[in-house]
What we know:
By secondary structure, this protein is mainly α.
Amino acid sequence: MRDAVTSLIKNYDSTGRYLDRNALDTLKAYFDSGTARIQAAAVINSNAASIVRQAGSQLFEEIPELIRPGGNAYTTRRYAACLRDMDYYLRYASYALVAGSMDVLDERVLQGLRETYNSLGVPIGSTVIGIQIMKDIVKEQIAAAGIENAAMVDQPFDYMTRELSEQDV
Ligand code: CYC
């Protein structure tokens, strides 16, 4: 599992180069955004349960078929599995934000997920909508907390969305 710093070092080390201007600019941008990343993670951590609950309600309001008989989130077991999955996405998004790298998402969340979802009939389009709803709620709360320069918050949510939706060619 890598973060912004270890991925950069790995790249330079593999070709035996000293850190050049580009590398230093990348590092500087990462460290400059450090406080905002940590503040964003703090907002997520202290509101996680309510973010998941609110996003779930909004998702089932937008796509009520999910919780009707025949829907993938119908029965309390599957309803709970869906909220649990949303909680996974939120928690791992907070890790990726702090790491400044999407590597943790590839390694811990996305690997094999599409195949699992397809085999269980979990609708990917609806999952993507759920992830985007969480992103919007998180962004609202971050703005309300007065955290500036938090543009990076979109990244992990958009990354999971994109990777989940990607079709095999
Ligand atoms: C199931 N979600 C699962 C399963 C996995 C994950 C592995 C199958 C095993 C199980 O039921 O626990 C996902 N597991 C993960 C992820 C990680 C992991 C991401 C990384 C930490 O370890 N159904 C819907 C909604 C959506 C949903 C759109 C919620 C957004 O209609 C989710 N996921 C959902 C449901 C199941 C599931 C309902 C149960 C499906 C079933 O058993 O029939």
